[in-house]
Amino acid sequence: MSDIIKLIIDGKEITASSGDSILIAAEKNGIEIPNLCYLKEMSPYGACGMCVVEAEGSPKLLRACSAKAADGMVINTQGDRALKARKIALELLMGDHQGDCIGPCSLNCPAHTDCQKYVAEIANGDMEEAVRTIKEVISLPASIGRVCPHPCETACRRQHVEEPISIAYLKAFAADEVLKNGKHILPETAKETGKSVGIIGGGPAGLSAAFKLIQKGHKVTIYDKMPKMGGMLRYGIPEYRLPKAVLDTEIEEIRSLGVEMINGCTLGKDITLSDIRNKHDAVLVANGAWKSSSIRCPGENLSGVFGGIDFLRAASLGEKPEIGQKTAIVGGGNTAMDACRTAVRLGAEEVSIIYRRTRDEMPAEDIEIEEAMEEGVIFRFLTNPAEIIGENGKVKAAKLQVMKLGEPDEKGRRSPVPVEGEFITLELDSIIIAAGQKNDPAGFEELETTKRGTILADERTFTTSIPGVFAAGDTTNDGASIAIKAIAEANEAAKFIDAYLDGIEIPYKKPVLSERSITDDMFTEYEKHPRIKMPQRAPEDRRNDFTEINLGFNKKEAIEEAKRCLSCGCHDYGHCKLIKYADEYCTDCKRLAGEYHKGFKEEKLEVIFRDQHKCILCGLCVRTCEEIARQGILGLVGRGFDTVIKPEFRNIDIRSICANCKKCAEVCPTGALKIIK
What we know:
Elements: E1 4-9, E2 12-17, H1 22-28, E3 52-55, E4 61-63, E5 74-76, H2 80-95, H3 104-108, H4 115-123, H5 127-134, H6 141-147, H7 151-154, H8 167-180, E6 196-200, H9 204-215, E7 219-223, H10 232-235, H11 244-256, E8 260-262, H12 273-279, E9 282-285, E10 291-292, E11 305-307, H13 308-316, E12 326-330, H14 334-345, E13 350-355, H15 366-374, E14 378-381, E15 383-391, E16 394-408, E17 414-427, E18 430-433, E19 437-438, E20 469-471, H16 483-502, H17 539-542, H18 555-562, H19 577-585, E21 601-602, E22 608-611, H20 620-628, E23 634-637, E24 644-647, H21 654-661, H22 663-667, E25 673-675
Parallel strand pairs: 1-5, 6-7, 6-9, 7-8, 9-20, 11-18, 12-13, 12-18, 13-14
Antiparallel strand pairs: 1-2, 3-4, 3-5, 10-19, 15-16, 16-17, 21-22, 22-25, 23-24
Helix pairs in contact: 2-19, 4-5, 4-8, 4-18, 5-8, 6-8, 9-16, 13-14
């Protein structure tokens, strides 16, 4: 009798050895059958239920890890019954799996920067590697680290202990440290494709897209109307927050990769959209939002009324807008904070913020509000311009309607309503309207727009109404937002532009991720280490010039701050078989979620960290310890739903045994075990 058998798996005729299981036969022939509890060095266990397959003529599903392959068998690993069983098995496992695949910091970053990884690299003192990690997503880390309103920190779990980690400042520190040492972390670029992309706008979106596309081997040209590249990073953010020498250095890094940068080129005047389309194989519109929004207030056309963005742009160009001794800024966002603090530095004696809600509702960062207050800015809450009063065509005063908070609006913010008959008159020499900004449609008339006047772009592919023309950032859809969101869109747009140039389509599937539900009492075990405060220049000094106000961390402070990270994201995410299969077979990993096992964390072995919340009871670690390591240190404890895996501490040096073995952690399919020594 021949030892070689023939069978068919998924339509492919293969050979196998007599006695092989279906799983081994498939594996020998390069066919993957999903499994979570199988290891070829051990006998089959069949606990996970993932390896089920359909066999022609069999009414039952077979477990491929234990069912023997037979001559003439016809196996279907992707049949409807097998897929349904596999899906239910995964949903049951995921419903009891409590772990974060990716740290909440990264999930809350619009660009999904791997914050946890670069913070860990900073904690290890490896600044170059940290910058390399950051530049996988952000091409301008020193600049963005200074100005980003850090949504990553809003989600940081460390706040449940005391305060979030200073993720943004750490980003800037690492980038500064590398540049200070004369190093430039630059990506490799692919062989030239012969294709070219024209980018309209040299702000964070345009520069980010250029950085990505040049790496793919495409020729990239950026067209920008301003004298220098940088967009709002240069012309909308004051020097005291972002020194332009830092921005210049990072832009030059992008230029050094071969990106052509053309400044002083205005669309509709020096060049048209059609011209750019004819010159390039694809076009990205990333021109930003450069027009200040109106508040539709009588007197808004008087001399001495400035738009917030216009005012900041003029100041950044070295001009000195005539704001006089008394000025007021209308608005409560970061642009309003930048405008009021710039007005202080330009010499205004009395600078006020006019905001129709209270401080609690202000969208500006708390630190920006506090710093403005320290610099002498007066905050006039619950007031709103009813009329800008002029004399001889120039601003003389503002009539302010007194407001009160009414019912919450659709975003949960309490809507301001006028207090009938109550007004305040504020004498002014000028008024700056920083109540929003919008894109300038000039030169883009060919493109379809939204009701808001922004360019209509597909939210997934960033395509516009013209084939080959893409759009991203503040100029599209919902309009102006934060720089990191523009960068996120530009990175995605670059991916779809590259695919377009290659003539392929990228299908979309929302990735399945495990996210842990948390409560404050889960963090009581951690020792409190308050956030290291960013050292700053004194308010009485910094209000007199545009020199950067933050003095920066030193290396010891940065490492100490980085070490506060709780490492919420799974250390094994990139190799986790559970999430790989869940992403492949499930759409909702918590569809069958119910009561969770009682989880715990075990560090007594000192060399292996065990997180029972992530354990799926596949038994691999227990069987590996017993059958391969021949130690039997681990075992299943309890019965039924309450079963857990625990070590048995005998009177031997278990620490040294585990330190020399570590096989259980190596075979764990879910990241429940981690080698820590």
